[in-house]
């Protein structure tokens, strides 16, 4: 699989950093990024360490490396705009939340799209029962070439979108949708990341826009509820009834774009008003 470079769309003085999911590329966030840019935001899609190359490169990286990519991109962006918002998909949502917890003065708001703390969607099968063991397996060197498979269909709920994104583009905007599942050792890193971020959720003070598919095949809406219950910032929730896990490219992506742009814009306007009043 060829590399997919990070993208940047120049806009106004409000910036949005977009974070892709495990084994994916910034392209799964590109449609969202274009929509936010049309709404006036400067948008950057970060390329996570270890992603965009072959599987050996992915397995040589860990969640700390992925988070370091996000923090470095956010630090760069905040020097160029007045405010930074961060939004992530799936595992990327966890990285976005961690940035808000670790660097609260950097993050004005968080987009939490299909957050995956637990692999408990309807296609996960027995994956949810062994996920907690994966870090141990990795430490013992067990299962490097093993994968957790999902029941089909994979990718967007819309069959035409699934075919277009899976076949009509070199690897689709979300990476190869018809891949053979996720490596145990890569998933082990997401389990460790989820444990770390879950402990840090009360440190998230920024407003959170939480979007999740009701019929998410990877991570049940209980993952969204988990975030809403434990963060300390204001929460706005969007539950999507006609999408699967990849909500940034699925049937309701326009709704996601509009609601995200409105959420970030309201925060930015309130901040400007508060600054003027002061």
From TrEMBL:
Query: Which residues does the annotated region (Disordered) include?
Result: 153-179
| Positions with biased composition (Basic and acidic residues) | 156-165
- Ranges for the Serine aminopeptidase S33 domain? 15-251
Keywords of the record: Hydrolase
Native species of this protein? Luteibacter yeojuensis
* Residues in the signal sequence: none
Source taxon at top rank? Bacteria
Gene Ontology terms for molecular function = carboxylic ester hydrolase activity
Q: Which residues form a coiled coil?
A: none
InterPro entries linked to this entry? AB_hydrolase_fold, Esterase_lipase, Hydrolase_4, MAG_DAG_Lipase
Pfam family, any one:
Hydrolase_4
What is the protein name stated in its UniProt record?
A: Alpha/beta fold hydrolase
- The active site of this protein is located at 90, 216, 245
